[in-house]
Each structure stands twice: as C-alpha cells, then as structure tokens.
Structure prediction request, 499 residues.
Amino acid sequence: MSKQLEGPILPFLRIDATIALPKFRQVQDQLRMAILKGHLRAGTRLPASRILADELGLSRQTLVRVLENLKAEGYLEARQGAGTFVSAALPRQSTKLSMPARGDVTDSAPPRLSRIGEQSRRMSADIGQMEDRPFLPNRPALDRFPFAIWRKCWNAVARSGKAVAMGYGDVAGELVLRQRIAEYLALHRRDPCDPEQIVITPGGHAAFSLAALALADAGDGIWFEDPGPITTSNLFRTLGLRLCPTHVDAEGLDVEGAIARYPDARLAFVMPSRHHPLGVTLTLPRRLALLEWARANDAWIIEDDYDSEFRYDGAPLPSMRSIDSNGRVIYAGSFSKALYPGLRVGYLVLPPPLIGTFRNLSALIHRSVPVETQLALAEFIGGGHFASHLRRMRSLYAERRETFTQVAQETLAGLARIDSSESGLNALAWLKGGRQDQAPHRAVLDAGLQCYPLSDYTIATPLPGALILGYAGVPADRMRPLLLRLADAIARTEGNIGR
Prediction:
C-alpha cells in the first residue's frame, strides 16, 4: 500500500461554513479533541496532508499549517521518512463508559425496553463467560485440535479464489457443507437426510432460537427437562415461551408425567442421546411415547443431539429423528464439542414442510454464517479429518474419563459420589452428608478450578447437591493434583451442610 494512502479515515472532521471560526482552526480543534478523548490513540499514523486536504476540500497549505500547529502543541510528532503520528508521549485516554458496579443503585430510571429486552436485563451478565479453568464442563481438549490441518483447509479455500466466499452465501448454508453434514449423519448417526433439509446456523443456540420462533408464539408451552441447561431455559423464557419443567429420571424425560401436566404444550425440548447434566439416555418406549404425543397434538420436538459423538461403550445411539415417521422432530446439532466452541457453526435437520419457512426466517435473522468458515469446515469433513479427529478424541476422552473416575473416587471418598456416564465430556460429583452445592461451588472457584452447581440447573424439582465437572479438557497426568485441590476445597465447606 502506498504510504500516501495510509492512516485512518477521519469522518468526524467537518467544515462548517456558517461560523466565523477560520477553517484551519476548525480542523485543528477537532483533531485536538479527538486526541484528548482517545479516539486517536498515541502512536496512530495520520493521513498525509495531501490526502486530508483532498478529503476536506482545503488547500494542502492549510492542512500543513494545522499539522505544524499541533506538533508545536505536543499532540503530534513527525518521524523521519514515516509521516506524522499522534505523540507517543501523551497519556493513554480511556474511551470506556463509566459503568456502575453490579448491584449499584443509580438515580437514573432504567431504560424503556421491549419484553425481550427486559427479560434479558434480568439475567446474569456472566452467561457464556465462564473462565477456562480445569474441570470446566463441556470443554473439549482444545490443545489436541489439529490446527495445522485446519489451517490447510482454510488456506485451500482462500487459494481457490472463489468469489462466493466473499459474498453472503446461501441463506440455508453452503451446499457443499450441507452435503458433508448429510453424509456424516447417514454414516455415523444412522440418520440419512437430504442436504436440502439442512439449515446452517451460527451455533446451537441460534438453531434453538430459530425453531422456537418458527413454531411457537409467546405464551405457548415447551416441555423442558428438569434439571436442564440454564442458558437454554433462559433463551426460551426470553422468547416468551411458557416453560413446562418435566422431571428426568433414570429413563430420561418423564413423558407420561409431562402429558398429564402439560398436554397442550406446543414444543418439547429434549436431549435423548445424552441428557445434560444427568447423563441419562431416553429409553425407546419413552421415545415412542413422545413421538406419538407430538403426532396426536400437532406439536414439535426439538432434539438437541448433545455431544452424542463421544460414547465410549458401543456405537453412538441412533437419533430420535431416525425413528420419526410423522415428521415431528427438528434435529439440532453443532460442532462446538466435536471441534471447538468458537467455530460457531450449528445446523438443523428439518421435516420437508418446514424447509421454506426456516430458510426464510434464517435469512431475516442470521443472513448467513461466514461463508469462508463453512467452506473450510466442508473441506475438513470431506478430507476425512473430522472422522479422524473424532476417533482420536473418543480414545483420548475415554482414557481421561477412566483416570478421572478412578482418581476422583479415591480423592473425593467421603465427600462425594462420582457418577460418570458412558458418554459425554462431564461427570457428576454428588455431595455426601446432605450438603448443598452453592458453597462448595464458590470454594472450588476460589481454588482456581471450575465447575457448575447442579442447583443452578434445577427449575421445579429439588435435587441433592452435586457439582458438574468436566474431565475432557484435563490431561490424565494432571488429574490427581487437581482433584486433590478440588477435594480440599469441598472439605473446607463441611460446616455448610444444608446451606
């Protein structure tokens, strides 16, 4: 790039012909104020005087005068052969707004918000911002991700020079990615579908939002497993749905109880392959009963296929969609656990009558997931790298699960009972002695570790205290010292029984 063209665009510079202040003074004052407010940071290179003069419609001599005056005042500095810069000697200015501390009372009235905005305002500001510490639930082994191969896939897309990668792309997602996902589902989930039934979304929660908005109105009921993920329950509440908490036992969602209590619900949100956080699987009789309820009541089932790729005893279980003969299941999947959360690619598999509606709604809300990301992911799957990565991760997580379970049973003996299901990335530590989980949770955080308290996931059904612990992101050789630290943290809360 020519040095003449370097430097920021300065749209705040305006010449007002209606005031008596000379034009050079107007520009000079505006530049000085931008520097004082931190809009032009120390060390920023300014555009050349010729460029500024052309953009403002002034003579170059006028702009040279402005720049020289600001140099004399100490706001700017010249660097031989490089140009004019905001002086590095100036103190850094903060442009952040002054925010009241959480819980502080201010004199100003709260802003007028929509119903959705008001619901969002009441939620915790920490949603989705958990620190990445040992035992963070749902965290894959990011250190084992094949970054070199992923980079090659991305570079292959860039080198192809496809102009489509620079556009908005298909509102349903790039066809090549939908084809790769359809192939994967047919081979690995025993659930064939047409690529036209797939809509790509920016992550799993976007998929849930799309389904809720397309299929239910505010006030409609949605069966929701209790306990269940707090961010997802908050999402449905925010969208105006009436949450219908439904008990989960060893056989999964209590379908009979849900029918008795909430027969008129419009939706059911379920995690049949592996419930989070309890880790149970929805039995076949209950799956069939759920499908029959949906058919008979013109209701819809949102199937969250939560980390089903990681089953350590036998092949992954078939999806509910694969046994749905009436087209009542909307299948939702993502790559957050299988690859990494920051990828932000999810997808829906839809019954044919819903395809047009979901495509149109996705176009209105999301427009499209970044095309380059989709094409790189398609290259990664098509090259066999996704299957290879899953195979390696299953082996790794099985090893880490076995080590975690063995060491945790030793180190937490007398403190907690370990419940590690045959799939997924997490385990439950059921606290002994009638202890509740909030105080142990705080102690674990204070110890530099991470977990979720089960009580945060419960809606209407009280459960014994338990901590949700993620083992997949912790190397086997670090398990013992970290679990000893965890045990020490829990032990320090022994006086908090019943709190």
Notes: The CA atoms of residues 332 and 348 lie 5 Å apart. The chain has three domains: 13-86, 145-387, 390-496. Residues 94-99, 101-106 have pLDDT under 50 and may be disordered. The two ends are 64 Å apart (CA to CA).
